[in-house]
UniProtKB/TrEMBL annotation:
Listed GO biological process terms: actin filament organization; neural crest cell migration
Pfam name, any one: WD40_4
Alphabetical keyword list: Actin-binding, Coiled coil, Repeat, WD repeat
Protein name: Coronin
Source organism: Anhinga rufa
Keyword check for Ribonucleoprotein: no
WD repeats mapped onto the chain: 17-59, 67-109, 111-152
């Protein structure tokens, strides 16, 4: 972890976050606390870390909490967009677990919905639904609290290579994948009617998976192909062709991976609308997207109110069935970080008769007699 504007190689002795016993496969910064980060690893665990206010001076080896529940490596972690301390993880055991990080408990276990590898998971804007893309070529829309699939599309993209699916702010779903002829495709879907896509575009025959990064404020999607040296971006609108090509940013070196700065981390005085962190073999390089404007005044069309750092719900409220949209803030005077509260984990007493994460299979398949006996 180093200052966002410092680029190039870093010293070998730089402090790191190192508590996993296997490679870390995914990380996600908490949207409600700028010092908290979740990581999923090949060691089958999810760890949640509290970074000191002024960054690392020593390497960090002790997570705030270790979440154990997956039986295979954990390739995906994703914080709930509006509820505090709610974290989703997905593993190669084809299970999705939703945790209350504040108590260290797995409260929802969706272990019978995916028959094949999960490529990615995306929350919708208020965190009431998730959508997933899987190796079986299906996109599923899932209500995690009811533990049911509310919509699905077979052969979203016909090709065998990996897909991605993300929710947009209006509730539609954007996907990337490959055609039967191995052409890269992007598509837009209405989850209420998944028969036909709203739009489907063929791109090119490159074989890098297209990773979508979405800005709900401007409705722009940035597509970063793995191994490409370019970023293409599109605006999503209500009118045909729905997915409008805007432009391509090109560079010399291919990207090995890409990170995306949250909107409140951007420089509004420079009309910066997106900042990427491009991973090279030996360094991390910021790529800054700006919209040229003659005026020095705040450009309110570029910066509508954006999701702020305050959670709209507590974890318990969400698990009980409440929904809430993100709490918005203005960026007119830039983002002034507030004081982050430390993440406190209060482990529940295991003897408090609380059943473990409700597995659908347990609820359905438990024979009557066994259920009586266990009670």
């Amino acid at each position: 972890l180093f200052p966002p504007l410092q680029t190039g190689r870093i010293d070998k002795s730089y402090p790191t976050v190192c508590g996993h016993t296997g490679p870390v496969l995914d990380i996600d910064w908490c949207p409600h606390n700028d010092q908290v980060i979740a990581s999923g690893s090949e060691d089958c665990t999810v760890m949640v870390w509290q970074i000191p206010e002024n960054g690392l001076t020593l390497s960090l080896t002790e997570p705030v909490v270790v979440l154990e529940g997956h039986s295979k490596r954990v390739g995906i972690v994703s914080w709930h967009p509006t509820a505090r301390n709610v974290l989703l993880s997905a593993g190669c055991d084809n299970a999705i677990i939703i945790w209350n990080v504040g108590t260290g408990e797995a409260l929802i276990n969706l272990d019978d919905m995916h028959v094949d590898m999960i490529y990615n998971v995306s929350w919708n804007r208020n965190g009431s639904l998730i959508c997933t893309a899987s190796k079986d070529k299906k996109v599923r829309v899932i209500d995690p609290r009811k533990q049911e699939i509310v919509a699905e599309k077979e052969k979203t993209h016909e090709g065998a290579r990996p897909m991605r699916a993300i929710f947009l702010a209006d509730g539609n779903i954007f996907t990337t994948g490959f055609s039967r002829m191995s052409e890269r495709q992007l598509a837009l879907w209405n989850p209420k009617n998944m028969e036909e896509p709203i739009a489907l575009h063929e791109m090119d025959t490159s074989n890098g998976v297209l990773l979508p990064f979405y800005d709900p404020d401007t409705n722009i999607i940035y597509l970063c192909g793995k191994g490409d040296s370019s970023i293409r971006y599109f605006e999503i609108t209500d009118e045909s062709p729905y997915v409008h090509y805007l432009n391509t940013f090109s560079s010399k070196e291919p990207q090995r991976g890409m990170g995306f700065m949250p909107k409140r981390g951007l420089d509004v005085n420079k009309c910066e609308i997106a900042r990427f962190f491009k991973l090279h073999e030996r360094k991390c390089e910021p790529i800054i997207m700006t919209v040229p404007r003659k005026s020095d005044l705040f450009q309110d069309d570029l910066y509508p109110d954006t999701a702020g750092p305050e959670a709209a719900l507590e974890a318990e409220e969400w698990f009980e069935g409440k929904n809430a949209d993100p709490l918005l803030i203005s960026l007119k005077h830039g983002y002034i970080p507030g004081k982050n509260r430390d993440l406190k984990v209060v482990k529940k007493n295991i003897l408090d008769n609380k059943p473990a994460a409700n597995k659908k299979s347990d609820l359905i398949n438990a024979p009557k007699k066994a259920a009586d006996a266990s009670n």
